[in-house]
Recover the amino acids of this structure.
């Protein structure tokens, strides 16, 4: 379903200066495209730079280098970002992992969800706004009675739904979901994941899905990029990647997935990966930079 | 319990639609129980008395009755008269208006400066933040009364408005330091990012997210500032650089104190002084209460 | 000597809060055999941590054990004096937590903290304690133990900190180790390493482990037996094979079907609708009834007892009653 490119990330670099001598390369020269209507997964362990990538795209951090194009418009440069600010704000939204810190504890659910509507002045009167909030609560599967509750009166799953409702309130076409299910229980995770799939099919939502849960990513995403130490080491369509991982790190990562199968679990062998040993491992040593091992399947060798 | 065969029908989820219990929030109500009622009542009486001074007064406060100078409290002059023959009882209500006006206006000015300055400092980069905070420290290190006297001396004749402005622009530093540290704490909250990502501008974020979060933290200082502004005005008047004697305020009434102390006319100084102190104590009490509920209510959120 | 090292019988724990009494653990019974790993599996707020804290009697002040017995080696822990209970903690039972930093003091070198743990219950000299602590560090897989002995917790990565905490917990050769979500905060690759370590330690030292987790995959990997908790009760208990290949309770079915399957192409995950009940206002009957697709009328009237299906496997659901309709479990592995 290759359609129009919605987002292009080219050689994105995001460095943080810790002090005079130390620079942290959180994201180090990565490139990928996201197509209209797909859920693109970004997986990796903590500190691999996947959340930073999401935040750089939506301009929470000003990228150190590289370009980000949204619908062909350059948005990584402060000047062009400002020129397109309204367009970006309307069409690109973010969902955070920690629903406690992403919702202002002094605002009711209703106030939180209608905030973007107020800022963008989309509806003139209160009645219309209220109707939209009810509609959004309905989409994310929450009862109307919660609209006057405060976030601390809701459970983690409900708070995450509120975060999703807020992100959806401007009907954006692209959402960055930064670990949206990491802090939830298994049964609630499934509910939220189903919600994303429904939004993709019904509303044609495009999504950058950042997660460390490889099993869920396989389920939700159409294409997946694996990040390690600020680099994308492998990028492919989900099925292809899970069937045929090439990069040793991807292999190591997949071998660590725990399957809910007690007999099977004991037979599995884990592959260990050490950056410094495996750089020149035989399998990838003939690859330089990005290599397309099969159509749409890219592997990076450092 | 007797089991029946029909009990084993499959009925599925939500068979008994359970009514959702929406809990009221008892915690908030509880914290409001220990209000400083006495202080509130007294302050309210004083404020109402001042606002409706037309009703409470029984003499013209500015009229100098030269036939009745330094009369001790009696049935016509409840609190006596001063050395210019003005009725102290009426002057207290009338003058209270000006004192409270100065207190509130000066606090409004200082708080608005503090909130904007503190928020800008809290939100900006390390370098600008450092520079702005060093500036407040320099300003704080000079005794504010000195600056006030200096500015007042340059302006010349004082009136209630100019005094409020001068007090206002010299007493915002402490509040702005608190605002700045609170903003530093919450500025990286994800809900602020979320507001920015849908286009919220500085003043929107300030009003909607920052202010509600630090208002309770600075409320104590703000209430106290009202008291200290009234006290500063009195001090200035006592020193003879405040309001002229013709403009009645609690401060300008006290400026006669020097002479009154030398003679035996205790009522000229003690009664306005007592009013001033009672008002300040009430304000302090309320400020203290505000600080307490702030610490209790949102300390763990 | 019986085969059961630790037995918990009809344990009831509740918390008094401003809004009322929260029944965190309701009539829980289970036993821990010598040298086994028992996983207690449940979602947040189901009472699994409270259960383990009551075994060690380290509940917060507003929590109290209402009734029940906890028997370790024929000693009833609930009848011990606070002093003798102190001796049990660490020496007989130790506990490790999700966040290793709750146990580590950031201002003291790791090695010294392990030494202290060694010396609390054993009267040995400092040099012997140091030797023992280095052995422990090697045991839990910290390389270069002698060098890292003097390092502070902030020099250690998350996985290494969790290893050091395990070393501290093992310092006095306890018989039971309670591990409260020790791998939840870790990355998948590190998680797998720590799980391997715990399994290896269990085999080497013969210690019995209660492993609290919310992750079915972790439970499947590590445990010989699994107890599933929901709303303060154990709803199903059995060997790992029982639970995964022949689950009986509808809640277990729900949990299994909410997991993404690695080899299917279904569009939507089956999920349990609704949310766990509020332990303050527990509904009448089975607490899970409201979220249960297969709920029987009786589920709304009376709480189901434990039905024993085999020597190892029991579950608390009315579906196992002789009069109940037979339902094919919707999950297959």
């Amino acid at each position: 379903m290759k359609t129009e490119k919605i987002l292009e990330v080219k050689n994105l670099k995001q460095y943080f200066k810790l002090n005079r001598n130390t620079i942290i390369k959180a994201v180090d020269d990565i490139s990928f495209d996201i197509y209209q209507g797909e859920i693109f997964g970004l997986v990796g362990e903590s500190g691999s730079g996947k959340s930073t990538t999401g935040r750089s795209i939506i301009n929470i951090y000003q990228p150190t280098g590289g370009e980000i194009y949204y619908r062909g418009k350059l948005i990584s440069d402060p000047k062009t970002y400002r020129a397109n600010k309204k367009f970006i704000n309307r069409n690109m939204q973010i969902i955070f992992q920690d629903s406690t810190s992403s919702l202002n504890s002094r605002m009711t659910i209703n106030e939180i969800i209608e905030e973007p509507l107020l800022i963008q002045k989309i509806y003139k009167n209160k009645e219309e706004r209220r109707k939209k909030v009810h509609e959004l609560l309905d989409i994310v599967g929450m009862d109307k009675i919660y609209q006057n509750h405060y976030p601390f009166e809701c459970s983690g799953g409900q708070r995450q739904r509120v975060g999703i409702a807020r992100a959806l309130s401007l009907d954006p076409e692209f959402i960055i979901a930064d670990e949206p299910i990491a802090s939830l229980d298994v049964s609630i995770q499934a509910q939220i994941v189903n919600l994303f799939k429904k939004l993709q099919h019904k509303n044609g939502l495009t999504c950058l899905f950042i997660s460390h849960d490889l099993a869920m990513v396989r389920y939700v995403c159409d294409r997946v990029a694996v990040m390690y130490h600020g680099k994308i080491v492998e990028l492919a369509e989900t099925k292809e990647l899970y069937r045929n991982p090439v990069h040793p790190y991807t292999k190591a990562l997949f071998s660590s997935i725990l399957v809910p199968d007690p007999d099977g679990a004991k037979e599995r062998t884990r592959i260990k990966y050490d950056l410094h040993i495996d750089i020149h491992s035989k399998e990838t040593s003939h690859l330089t930079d990005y290599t397309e091992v099969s159509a749409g399947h890219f592997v990076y060798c450092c | 319990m007797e089991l029946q065969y029909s009990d084993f029908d499959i009925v599925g989820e939500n068979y008994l639609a359970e009514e959702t219990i929406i809990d009221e929030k008892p915690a908030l109500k509880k914290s409001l129980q220990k209000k400083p009622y006495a202080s509130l009542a007294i302050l309210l009486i004083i404020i109402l008395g001042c606002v409706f001074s037309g009703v409470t007064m029984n003499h013209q406060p500015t009229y100098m009755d030269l036939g009745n100078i330094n009369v001790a409290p009696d049935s016509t002059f409840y609190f006596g008269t001063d050395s210019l023959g003005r009725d102290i009882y009426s002057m207290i209500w009338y003058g209270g208006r000006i004192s409270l006006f100065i207190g509130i206006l000066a606090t409004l000015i200082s708080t608005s400066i503090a909130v904007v300055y503190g928020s800008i400092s809290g939100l900006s980069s390390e370098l600008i933040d450092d520079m702005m905070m060093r500036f407040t420290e320099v300003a704080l290190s000079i005794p504010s009364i000195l600056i006030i006297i200096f500015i007042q001396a340059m302006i010349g004749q004082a009136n209630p408005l100019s005094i409020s402005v001068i007090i206002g622009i010299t007493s915002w530093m402490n509040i702005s330091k608190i605002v700045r540290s609170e903003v530093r704490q919450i500025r990286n909250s994800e809900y602020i990012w979320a507001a920015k990502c849908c286009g919220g501008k500085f003043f929107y974020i300030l009003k909607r997210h920052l202010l509600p979060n630090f208002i309770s933290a600075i409320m104590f200082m703000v209430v106290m500032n009202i008291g200290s502004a009234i006290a500063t005005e009195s001090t200035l008047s006592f020193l003879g650089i405040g309001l002229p004697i013709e403009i009645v305020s609690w401060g300008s009434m006290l400026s006669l104190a020097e002479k009154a102390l030398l003679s035996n006319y205790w009522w000229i100084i003690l009664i306005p002084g007592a009013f001033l102190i009672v008002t300040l104590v009430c304000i302090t009490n309320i400020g203290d209460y505000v600080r307490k509920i702030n610490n209790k209510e949102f300390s763990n959120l | 000597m019986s085969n059961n090292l630790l037995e918990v019988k009809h344990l009831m724990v509740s918390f008094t809060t401003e809004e009322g009494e929260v029944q965190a653990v309701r009539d829980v019974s289970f036993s821990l055999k010598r040298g086994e790993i028992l996983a207690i599996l449940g979602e947040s707020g189901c009472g699994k941590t409270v259960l383990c804290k009551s075994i060690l009697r380290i509940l917060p002040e507003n929590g109290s054990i209402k009734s029940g017995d906890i028997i370790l080696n024929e000693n009833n822990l609930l009848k011990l004096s606070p002093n003798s209970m102190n001796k049990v903690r660490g020496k007989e039972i130790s506990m490790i937590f999700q966040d290793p930093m709750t146990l580590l003091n950031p201002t003291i070198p790791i090695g010294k903290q392990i030494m202290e743990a060694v010396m609390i219950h054993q009267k040995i000299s400092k040099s012997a304690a140091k030797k023992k602590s280095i052995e422990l560090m090697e045991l839990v897989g910290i390389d270069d133990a002698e060098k890292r002995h003097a390092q502070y917790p902030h020099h250690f990565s998350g996985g290494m900190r969790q290893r050091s905490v395990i070393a501290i917990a093992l310092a006095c050769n306890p018989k039971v180790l309670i591990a409260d979500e020790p791998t939840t905060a870790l990355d998948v690759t590190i998680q797998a390493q720590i799980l391997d370590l715990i399994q290896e330690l269990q085999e080497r030292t013969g210690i019995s482990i209660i492993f609290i987790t919310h992750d079915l995959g972790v439970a499947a990997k590590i445990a010989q037996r699994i107890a599933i908790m929901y709303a303060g009760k154990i709803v199903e208990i059995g060997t790992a094979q029982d639970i995964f290949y022949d689950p009986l309770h509808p809640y277990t079915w729900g949990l299994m079907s909410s997991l993404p399957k690695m080899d299917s192409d279904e569009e939507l995950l089956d999920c349990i609708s609704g949310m766990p009940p509020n332990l303050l206002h527990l509904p009448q009957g089975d607490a899970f009834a409201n979220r249960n697709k297969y709920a029987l009328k009786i589920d709304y009237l009376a709480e189901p007892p434990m039905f024993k299906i085999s020597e190892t496997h029991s579950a608390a659901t009315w579906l196992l009653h002789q009069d109940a309709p037979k339902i094919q479990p919707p999950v297959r592995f």
Chain C touches chain B through 27 residues (CB under 8 Å). The two ends of chain C are 38 Å apart (CA to CA).
